[in-house]
Specification:
five-stranded antiparallel beta sheet, 27% strand, 3 domains, alpha+beta
Length: 417
């Protein structure tokens, strides 16, 4: 005999007990009135803990701990008391992707899905193992979507790890190469992974990618719910894809500069923090795997005298830039910036940065900045001059720091973080 029942879900402390049924049919869920409507079809009894409402979407309990909430199980005409392998992948209680047979979970917490380890890497729990000897370890094969039981040729991404400076955007350049030098493949689709806590800006630069076959750039910060790169240090990604729509890809001699990412860190206050950048692939040429670096971008607070913010203080870069500036040169950076400087691609940004802190370069404390005093003192100091050789003829008439010890102490402070 059928019996209609209504159970209010608005109060999470109240349990609903339905007598006379273990089989049932969902009629509907009214999320606004917090009410679940269902029809009881048989004579058993079962105990149903109500879900808690979270605005538009109810939060449901998972009575049988099979990773599918009770409401969804009822909608699929399954008993919420009995664990079910919904995607038939062989995993039930530990399956954190219960509706996707390609993923199950990560029971050993190594970043690599259990289904992948079972099917494509001999169940080897070591992410650094290379079962097929192709130069790609288990983690790289997982991130590339390839099997570690079948040797692949390699599509490779090469990059350096520039330092990150507060309130400064850096460009990260990525180069493309292949292990067999072929430039007539079908293309490549990449995710570039990072963590949102590290960056205020992280975008593929839209005007720099290699254009032949460029299919899509997606700079939306997509949530990496399936941990595609096998790394818990990242949680978002942007993506880029090339195809052979216009002919063999890339159709030009290799290696080639493929694309750049513009990245700016969120404010930070500690020396030598790290921001991780990783890769995974959603499209590769048949028979090829992905080899890409795990970039560890060091976040540094620059010393006052690290003018170009490249992590080093040198006479012929930092000292020369300051001297040119004090002499009134409009191009203060010509021939001085290293690739590690965040100003390498934005040299015009450095002069305003210097001008905004001009008073800091009053080395002798006379109330003004001069190339013939402060600039000379700074350059001599960076070349290693000390004592009288440092200050001779370079102290201003109204200086408050007049001795070599005073000047050295001031420049020592400017050299520290």
């Amino acid at each position: 005999m059928e019996e209609d029942s209504t159970c209010s879900l608005g109060d999470p402390t109240v349990n609903c007990e339905i007598s006379g049924s273990s089989e049932y049919q969902i009629i509907g869920i009214d999320q606004f009135s917090s009410t679940l409507y269902f029809t009881v079809l048989s004579t058993d009894s079962f105990y149903f803990p109500p879900p808690r409402i979270n605005y538009y979407r109810p939060y449901q309990q998972d009575l049988d701990t099979d990773q599918v909430n009770d409401i969804d199980e009822l909608l699929k005409s399954e008993d919420p008391r009995i664990a079910t392998d919904f995607d038939s992948d062989g995993f039930t209680l530990t399956d954190t992707y219960p509706l996707d047979a390609n993923y199950s979970g990560d029971s050993d917490l190594d970043g690599i899905d259990d289904v992948y380890e079972s099917n494509y890497s001999l169940g080897v729990p070591d992410p650094t193992a290379d079962n097929d000897g192709d130069g790609l370890d288990v983690r790289a094969e997982y991130a590339g979507g390839t099997s570690d039981l079948i040797a692949n040729k390699i599509q490779q991404i090469i990059a350096t790890s520039p330092g990150l400076r507060p309130l400064t955007a850096s460009r990260i350049r990525f180069t493309y190469e292949v292990s067999d030098s072929r430039n007539d493949l079908t293309g490549m689709g990449l995710r570039i992974h990072f963590h949102e806590k590290d960056f205020s800006l992280f975008n593929i630069e839209v005007n720099t990618p290699y254009e032949a076959g460029l299919f899509e750039i997606n700079n939306a910060w997509s949530f990496d719910e399936k941990n595609y790169d096998g790394d818990f240090h990242t949680n978002r990604y942007v993506s880029i894809e090339w195809t052979n729509q216009d002919g063999p890809w890339p159709g030009t001699p290799l290696p080639l500069e493929a694309f750049s990412v513009i990245a700016a860190p969120k404010p930070f206050y500690a020396f030598s923090e790290e921001a991780i950048v990783n890769f995974s692939a959603f499209s590769l040429a048949p028979g090829y795997g992905l080899l890409a670096p795990r970039l560890q971008l060091i976040k540094r607070l620059s010393a006052m005298l690290d003018i170009d913010a490249d992590g080093e203080i040198k006479a012929l870069t930092d000292g020369l830039i300051v001297l040119r500036w004090l002499f009134g040169y409009s191009d203060v950076t010509a021939g001085t910036l290293s690739f590690d400087s965040p100003y390498y691609d934005f040299p015009s940004d450095l002069l305003p940065a210097l001008q905004s802190q001009e008073d800091l370069f009053d080395v002798d404390g006379d109330g003004q900045t001069s190339a013939f005093t402060d600039g000379v003192l700074l350059l001599r100091y960076l070349f290693g001059y000390r004592g009288d050789a440092l200050i001779s003829g370079a102290i201003g008439a109204n200086a408050t720091r007049k001795t070599a010890t005073d000047i050295e102490n001031r420049l020592n402070v400017m050299s520290e973080l």
